[in-house]
Amino acid sequence: MDDRGYSLRIVRANEQADPSNIGVLLGRLCIKKEIPVSQVAEFLNVSRMSVYNWFCGKGAPRKQMQQKIKEILEKLGDAQGG
Question: What sign does the dihedral 19-25-31-33 (CA atoms) show?
Answer without folding.
Answer: positive
